[in-house]
From TrEMBL:
Transmembrane segments: none annotated. Its cofactor is FAD. Pfam families: Pyr_redox_2 (PF07992), Pyr_redox_dim (PF02852). NAD(+) binds at G182, G183, G184, P185, V186, G187, C188, E189, G269. Binds 1 FAD per subunit. Residues 7-323 form the FAD/NAD(P)-binding domain. This is Pyridine nucleotide-disulfide oxidoreductase. Disulfide bonds join C43-C48. FAD binds at K52, G116, D308.
């Protein structure tokens, strides 16, 4: 059994952990980064990057089909090979992280491949292919262990092959038919991609609507758009049983028609295992989804947690933001996290961009709420764009302060339009100042002006 003493151990090298380990090493601390799978985490290998490559291709197909009505005759024959090739060759190097390991070691950090478990205060035991190493971290330990796909306890589901996001991004061919369990961002993005590539897709969502974390108007419009892509969207469903046959699966639905498909893709949320991480050593609740952190990402004295397990939003930009906060704290700088203007984008077509509070969250917080909404097809740019112009802008104002506390930008480039609204919420720009702006004509973001004019109680 080897022993190693460092200033800081970073356990789990998701996007934030990788950046933080390198930053601390470059600042002169002795650092070890510990990773049991791939350095960089879920985002580059199984999540954001490969899925957005799939979406780029699926959107190209949709635009080509629209060209038939807007610009002449186009013949579209979907081919998955370029997508699978890009993911394998350009994005993931066939799921090999050597370049990331080299980058980390090049920053001056040490790297240990293996599973880390806290075995004492400031002590981590790492078990990996090269044996066991006990690491003593004199300044402390940073956790960035992320989440894994959760397979819901539907009787029979686990008795046969099931895709999660990790299998879906490695697909070498499009299944003839696909049933997606879950209508959050993951389920909606995958359902649209595979439908546009020709799969017969059914999307089963237990909640009454898609994207329940977002404004109801966005979830309802997205269901409409997915149906237009040929997806059989069913909301408010309860799946009672799964039966795997040879080469297909049937899902029984309480009070509804059963669904049979060649492949089932589970996108029903994520899970963590705090007991496996040994959080009890610090007196923390091992049955929780993650440790409770303060505004410097401290979970306990000498223990920081960043990324998905910190529970402030499961996004790569959140992981990176929190890595910067924890890094400042470790390096003695006084920076506090501020979650008033957290942006998020679901990269369906139309994109659903949102920042800050939804109307319901603002009302729950006791604010005096005014909202303003406008439909993108009613704007000049929406009219010009025509096919694929569906979307909306919704603003949520704290009327007492006269500032926006939340906004949704759904539509073509909705995630980009969101940028202006994120500045408004983050900077607490007075609504009167926003109204006095000049919005370029004819842009999609000019619709913000109409939504501002619509603000009312
Ligand atoms: C399909 C999909 C699409 C997504 N798309 C987007 C998107 O477009 N934009 C966006 O912002 N976010 C997106 N996300 C979310 C994003 O992937 C995560 O928020 C992001 O990866 C940050 O996670 P993290 O920092 O918590 O760590 P993760 O990326 O989850 O990495 C954690 C790492 O810790 C390692 N680990 C775990 N336990 C141990 C241990 N005990 N010892 C050693 N190593 C350990 C794991 O192997 C893993 O590599 C998507 C997620 C999914 C599933
Ligand atoms: N573009 C992005 O930023 C992006 C993209 C994808 C994922 N993510 C993040 O990754 C995380 C995971 O996303 P997700 O979509 O897997 O999870 P999620 O928790 O957001 O959504 C899962 C959905 O599955 C449904 N569900 C749960 N059990 C079910 C069952 N038995 N039958 C039918 N439906 C069921 C729930 O109603 C829920 O709406 C999210 O926090 C998200 O923020 C971000």
């Amino acid at each position: 059994m080897a022993e190693l003493t460092v200033d800081v151990a970073v356990v789990g090298l998701g996007p934030g952990g990788e950046a933080l380990a390198a930053r601390l090493a470059e600042a002169g601390l002795s650092v070890v980064g510990v990773e049991e799978r791939l350095v960089g985490g879920e985002c580059p290998y199984y999540a954001c990057v490969p899925t957005k490559i799939m979406i780029r291709a699926a959107d190209a197909l949709a635009e080509a089909r629209r060209a038939g009505q807007l610009a002449g005759t186009v013949s579209v024959s979907p081919d998955w090979a370029p997508v699978a090739g890009r993911i394998r060759d350009e994005a993931t190097a066939d799921w090999d992280d050597q370049a990331a390991v080299d980058r980390l070691v090049g920053s001056g950090a040490r790297f240990l491949r293996g599973t880390g478990k806290i075995t004492g205060t400031g002590e981590l035991t790492v078990t990996g292919p090269d044996g066991t190493t006990v690491v003593t971290a004199t300044k402390g330990i940073v956790l960035n262990t992320g989440t894994a796909p959760a397979v819901p306890p539907i009787p029979g589901l686990a008795d046969g092959p099931v895709w999660t996001n990790r299998e879906a991004v490695q697909a070498l061919a499009v299944p003839e038919s696909l049933v997606v369990i879950g209508g959050g961002p993951v389920g909606c993005e995958f359902a649209q991609v595979f439908a546009r590539f020709g799969a017969q897709v059914t999307l089963l969502q237990s909640n009454a609507r898609l994207l329940p974390q977002d404004e109801p108007e966005a979830g309802e419009l997205l269901a409409e758009r997915l149906r237009a892509d040929g997806v059989d969207v069913r909301t408010g469903v309860k799946i009672t049983r799964a039966t795997h046959h040879d080469g297909s699966v049937t899902l029984d639905i309480d009070g509804g028609e059963p669904v049979t498909a060649a492949t089932v893709l589970v996108a029903a949320g994520r899970k963590t295992d705090m007991a496996a991480l040994g959080l009890g050593v610090y007196g923390l609740d091992e049955s929780a989804k993650g440790p409770t952190v303060d505004d410097r990402m401290r979970a306990a004295e000498g223990l920081w947690a960043i990324g998905d397990i910190a529970g402030k939003g499961a996004f790569t930009h959140m992981s990176m933001y929190q890595a910067a906060i924890a890094g400042d704290d470790i390096l003695g700088q006084d920076t506090k996290a501020d979650y008033r203007a957290v942006p998020r984008v679901t990269f369906t077509d139309p994109e659903v961009g949102a920042v800050g509070l939804t109307e319901a969250q603002a009302r729950e917080a006791g604010l005096t709420v005014r909202t303003g909404t406008t439909q993108i097809p009613a704007s000049s740019r929406g009219f010009i764009h025509k096919l694929g112009n569906e979307g909306l802008i919704k603003l949520v104002e704290d009327a007492d302060r006269g500032v926006l506390v939340g906004a949704t930008a759904m539509g073509p480039g909705g995630g980009e339009v969101l940028g202006a609204l994120a500045v408004a919420v983050h900077g607490e720009v007075p609504v009167d100042t926003l109204r006095g702006m000049i919005f370029a004509y004819p842009t999609f973001h000019r619709a913000i002006e109409s939504a501002l004019a619509d603000l009312r109680s």
